[in-house]
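Figure 6 in text form: structure in, sequence out.
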């Protein structure tokens, strides 16, 4: 089976013909011309050099993202047009998955985790983790865009890990070493991680990945493949005023140190020592805006209830909806029957916020704060 593979998701535009797991030929260009100008002539040259035509192609494969928004559309439009004209089945391949196949092409079918990572600007990355086991690759962590400091939390280093992408080692290594130190402190053995050069032309890996998907029946025809956009284009986010979007993540060890080092920016009723102790036993979430921590919340699950221990917003970011975002996230993601919290009786704005989300006053704790101010007990019933 001959596969015509196309990649326009990155700066390098590439095409390849793959047959039965082997690359017959690939072509690529780093030209400054738009992919829309270089792709079709390159495909023509590729087919002619192999003395074949589209009629000899049994399967089309194309990167569907993440990557360049314009480039992805160019590649998919071309593949869909070929599929429509010749009734050739088509497979869309995640660019991050293709990178994982690229790592396998260089390192062989060794049991390991593969972390694919692409720069998404503003200290964010496109990111996914795959697992190679007994000659088969599977998804371990779904593709998403996240802050680079959070990516390492989704990989344990108790088995070999290959890292492939365009994010520099200088940015990643300190995070990995901090995670390994944490695992060693828990008495866990850790393995070496290894960087894989991102030097396999992606169209080749896309062709191999597509062939595997085709064997499993995961293919379609013209217009069946859609772009994989993990976030909106920059121009659209600017137009909609979303550059300052607030994202909620699980707190990482890096986040904890960040908060500790800047604790004076998060004034609240807890001192640093109390926070440092509670974060060991409670689940914490952080709110981030433009890659900066702007708020956090801690909670504990007790039987069928969730108790919110503390909800804090950075002093210079109050009044723009961060607490609302954190509270909304907890409510939406919560599977328990009841959420409980307590608030200072004089914190009228917080009480009104909780009431807006449906919390009801259930009691008081006399002289709870500094032995002088009462705490209002509030609950939200979900079950």
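Output sequence:
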């Amino acid at each position: 089976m001959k596969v015509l593979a196309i990649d326009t998701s990155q700066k390098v535009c590439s095409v390849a013909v793959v047959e039965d797991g082997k690359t017959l030929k690939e072509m690529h260009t780093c030209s400054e011309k738009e992919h829309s100008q270089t792709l079709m002539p390159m495909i023509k040259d590729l087919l002619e050099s192999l003395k074949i035509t589209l009629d000899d192609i049994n399967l089309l494969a194309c990167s569907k993202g993440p990557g360049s928004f314009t480039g992805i559309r160019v590649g998919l439009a071309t593949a869909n047009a070929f599929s429509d004209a010749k009734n050739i089945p088509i497979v869309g391949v995640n660019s991050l998955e293709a990178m994982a196949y690229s790592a396998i092409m260089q390192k062989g079918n060794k049991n390991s985790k593969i972390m694919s990572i692409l720069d998404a600007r503003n200290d964010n990355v496109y990111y996914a983790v795959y697992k190679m086991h007994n000659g088969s690759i599977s998804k371990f962590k779904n593709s998403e865009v996240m802050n680079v400091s959070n990516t390492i939390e989704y990989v344990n280093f108790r088995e070999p890990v290959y890292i492939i992408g365009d994010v520099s080692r200088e940015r990643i290594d300190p995070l990995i070493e901090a995670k390994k130190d944490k695992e060693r402190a828990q008495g866990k053995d850790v393995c070496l991680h290894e960087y894989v050069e991102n030097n396999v032309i992606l169209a080749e890996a896309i062709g191999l990945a597509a062939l595997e998907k085709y064997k499993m029946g995961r293919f379609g025809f013209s217009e069946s493949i859609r772009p994989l956009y993990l976030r909106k284009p920059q121009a659209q986010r600017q137009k909609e005023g979303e550059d300052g979007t607030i994202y909620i993540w699980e707190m990482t060890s890096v986040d904890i140190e960040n908060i500790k080092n800047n604790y004076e920016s998060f004034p609240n009723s807890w001192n640093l020592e109390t926070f440092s102790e509670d974060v060991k036993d409670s689940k914490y979430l952080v709110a981030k805006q433009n890659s900066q921590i702007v708020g956090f919340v801690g909670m504990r699950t007790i039987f069928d209830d969730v108790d919110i221990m503390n909800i804090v917003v950075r002093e210079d970011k109050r009044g723009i909806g961060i607490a609302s975002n954190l509270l909304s996230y907890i409510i939406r993601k919560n599977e328990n029957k009841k959420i409980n919290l307590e608030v200072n009786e004089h914190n009228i704005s917080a009480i009104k916020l909780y009431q807006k989300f449906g919390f009801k006053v259930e009691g008081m704790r006399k002289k709870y704060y500094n032995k002088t101010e009462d705490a209002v007990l509030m609950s939200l019933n979900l079950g």
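Caption detail: The longest strand covers residues 136-147.
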